[in-house]
Amino acid sequence: MYKNISTIFGFRTIIEAINSGKTLEKVYxxxxxSGHLSSELNRLLKKHHISSSYVPVEKLDKLSKYKNHxxxxxxxxxxxxxxxxxxxxxxxxxxPLYLLxxxxxxxxxxxxxxxxxxxxxxxxxxxxxxxSAPLNADAIKTSAGAAFKIPICKVNHLLDAIxxxxxxxxxIVAITEKTANTIxxxxxxxxxxxxxxxxxxxxxxxxxxxxxxRGKLPLLGEIESLNVSxxxxxxxxEVVRQRL
Length: 244
Prior knowledge:
Helix content: 25-40%
Strand content: 15-25%
Structural class: alpha/beta
Distance between the termini: 30 Å
CATH architecture of the largest domain: 3-Layer(aba) Sandwich
Order of helices and strands: EHEHEHEHEHEHEHEEHEH
Number of strands: 10
Largest sheet: 6 strands, parallel
CATH class of the largest domain: Alpha Beta
Mean pLDDT: 90
């Protein structure tokens, strides 16, 4: 679902937004705040795994356009995220294709991946609640509207998502240089979920450990790595090639 990107502020407003099920992209809290409402907000942020950061009051003044923010400002997501279990249950394709993004932090990479994923028929994109690029205006613009056309699921932990997909008979393929196999050695005609790692650290060890298959992109030049959105595009189009 689409809605305008908006900013809300004030403890009670943000607490009510969380309790009513609104998707918050991030919450900004003034450094040094304390009190009952501050404690209640922090409890909810931890419970719902909502990203937050402590910032100077000047930052909050700018975010709220100098209105009475009470020391806390939140960004409501432009997209209502999907529940992964619901997406799997309602999927109709014989061999679905999913994409897991392990802490992709650059918004333009995120947007470019969304665009390629929509073009290659990915059924859903799965990202962790924390540590990923926000789905903000830049990401949406870079996606060329794909952010509104493909289900995006936020999960507390990618490991849980992987176990769920494996239980449904979906092979988990990690795109990583830490293997002798290339992506051209993998059978992508099966139900598949690809994992792409972060720009700087790649796929986290705990996630890489439980992947069913690993595949790398052969690099013939002197540069040792590709931009993650480019690598993702190459991998997804190998899936398309095999399935055509």
